[in-house]
Amino acid sequence: MRRRIGTALAVALLGAPLATLPVASGAQAGPAHPTMVSTNPVDWTPHVLDGTVWAIAVVGETVVVGGDFTTVTDSAGANRVPRRYLFAYGLRDGRILPWAPTVDRPVYTLTAGPDNTVYVGGWFLKVNGAAQRGVARISLVDGSRTPGFNARINWGDVRALAVVHGSLYIGGTFTAINGVPRVALARVNAVTGALDTGFDARLAAPGMRRARVEDFAVTADGRRLVVIGAIRSAGGVPRNQLAVLHISGPGAVVLNWHTDTFNAGCMAGFDTYLRGVDFSPAGDYFVVVATGRATGPTLPCDAAMRFDLAGVGLHRPVWVNRTGGDSLYSVSVTGPAVYVGGHQRWMNNAYGKETAGPGAVARSGVAALNPVNGLVLPWNPGKSRGVGTQALVASSAGLFIGSDTETLAGERHARLGHFPLP
């Protein structure tokens, strides 16, 4: 599961002139970077002492962090602070903020909201002791639930969020929102949480236990959405693990864009092996990353793959970069680079089988790829592997990284790091 959330860009909310909403946030394409980020992370990020960081959102000068942790400390390790599943710190100084809303289960996704708020998605049932299943909007001033936002899922979890032109897109494992059937993907009013009843992608996974949205990404102009996960059809037409939708109108229109790349199987038992997706800042291509525990020069497993958006009909990857058997979970496309994260040991490793095959390049836990040809770039900060990098966040401040490990660029950065732009 990969989570990456960019810095919010505010626009006027249609029908609510007193509120402002981010155009590019959540799973929407982040800002283009002028160059690659530094390999030297900033020294002031806090340390997360247990669990995993699954999600990061940059909201103005505040960084919000979500996951399944319980305790954090400042960068010096001097002050331990209890924070279960959510905390926030200062972007420029790493100061742990007193902001401390309570949720009763892990947080998997975050995105900036209007008027100094943040949308939170995950497996939780309650927020600040009140029933608010799966998704909530929380004030960054005092940690309170935002009055009037009442979206709720029926069961399962929320794994992806994005705010686009006054609407909040929600993806996960649910089968209803606000009591109305919606399988794994829905659109609600960003202020009230009211379901947009005209929007229904009709995702289905016949033969599986349930359909599931693992992740989605939205172009910066808010017109196209690519969704990945345990999917076999969308809008009544076959779409195996990936579908591209037109979303700027009143409904969800499945585009005549499809691929047979994911018809090939990885290891048995995966209902989907796709884990993360991100659009380029210009919206002309997207990159998906996969697990799968299967190797070989033709399999779409344990790999990063670029697809161009232009054209209709059958599409195949422009390039594929394979790890040789190690999972990739997260991806962030910034223009100069495609950053990918997981528990990989190598990239450019099409012929490796849990080994370094011919042409393999060592890259532990995080790597940067050339967006044109997919080959690994020299950027190589190094990272301890663990289960893997679950969050890559591109913002105007650089690249943020969240995981379950403690070493980054040869330094202690427990589960959280920030690579600045030079």
Automatic annotation (TrEMBL):
Span of the signal peptide: 1-29
Alphabetical UniProt keywords: Signal
Native organism taxonomy: Bacteria, Bacillati, Actinomycetota, Actinomycetes, Micromonosporales
Record protein name field: Uncharacterized protein
